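**Protein record**
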Amino acid sequence: MAKGKYIMGIDAGTSVTKAVLFDLDGREIKSHGIPTKILSPAFNWVEVDMNELWEWVRTCIRTLAQSVEPGSIIGIGITAQGDGTWMIDRNGESVRPGICWCDGRASEEIATWHADGTADAAFEICGTSVFTGSQSAQVRWLEKHEPESLQRAQVIFHCKDWLFYKLTGVTSTDETDESLPLLNMSTRQYDRRLFELYGIQKYMDKYPEVRPCPQNFAEIRPEVARDLGLSGDVVVASGPMDVSACALGVGAIENGQACTIMGTAAIHEVVMDSPLLEPKMMGMTLCHCDESRWIRLMAAMAGTPNLEWFFREMGGQIVSDARNAGHDVYDHAAAIIDSVPVGSEGVVFHPYLFPGGERAPFVKPSARASFTGISLNHGNHHLLRAVYEGIAMAMLDCYKHMPIPVAEVNLCGGGAKSRAWCQIFADALGADVVITEGEELGALGAAINCGVATGVYPSFSEAVKRTVRTARRHHPDPEKKPLYEGLYELYRLTYKQLWDTWDLRARLTSGEA
């Protein structure tokens, strides 16, 4: 049984819900995860049963608590998927399943707001270009289609806020999660003008107090502590949301530092010491964990699921060959993509697979994935490399629209495991790609915030110095940068030409045309 003092990080993601134990130097001791069960009761809907999620978290916490000495866990930090809509009634029970960030039901609201100027007016206050996963759009959808849910709701908040409530009995939210898109970026507080623009001002009193991350903490409820095998003096800190937590977990807390999370979504972010709102109507602006820092975020909807989809639907032979050779499929894929030239000999992939379309650097609910440039001379090896490169082009597209240039990018998430893909990212960006030691960096960010909240670390900067270490660094090949710049121009020109085609496809498939 492990000995020492530990902080547990909870990370309730779209793919996996997990708990991770860290020692006070940020080293991963043990983790336990459960696949997140996604519900899709209607076309374009993406939901999670709130009570099931709580049971998964209970199981994860109990499992880790049993692996260490009683009383050695001194704190729990929570992070989770951001955006979306999670609601409880006056009894603290879930009103309905949580609506996730990648849900597409609010596409009509988003299309209307971007057409009538609402989105532009909101951006001037919150710095975020609203998309289908934005809570404001989902609440507006609920008012039209499920008004009874909003009538029953006592509190409207987010995924991690629900877990914080279950652990502590406190209803609150933090500045990072509520930034998108309901806070004024200058005051870091709710702005009534935003609620009025979205047409949801009647629900403003259902929103909880907004706290800075290191102030959003409470002691665990005694009965919950007993149930989970924890000490009654464990302190639970809620926040930051997943994107800010990952930035903290890789040490990106100073102006100009960048972080990419290559996971279910492909999140690209740069830290700022003031809320820069240029360029307009691109990406999101959110408060960072430190009260003097903000993040400009370009959050492409789909990251690693593009590869998972390819292997499942089109890469059967590649998967079979890997298994027959006794290789991991991703290691096998690395050798394949290395055999195909930069640019996949003209095949271009646009990675817009999710039902909500795309949200960065442009917002387009009707956007869909596609291959272009295929001929009889191409095979599945070209298509595979095109998928890897398409996601890299989406990354480059996002960083080219940031208000601050970046010299290097800290990369985390499942995509960071692939050395071949990391090198493609470095070559495409023309910048170093840095991989941080450890795998659960969102959970680490949540644990660091808990440590700052409880005084284990005197500040975020001191916490990062103690807990964050570099594992490896990928330097760009200068000879490949011009090749990727050419591919990028083709990538952008192609999706611009597809813009109206996506809308037509949406009308045809919905029966409107």
Notes: The mean pLDDT is 95. The chain has 18 helices and 23 strands. Residues 2 and 224 are 23 Å apart (CA to CA). Residues 305-435+474-510 form a domain with the Nucleotidyltransferase; domain 5 fold (CATH 3.30.420.40).
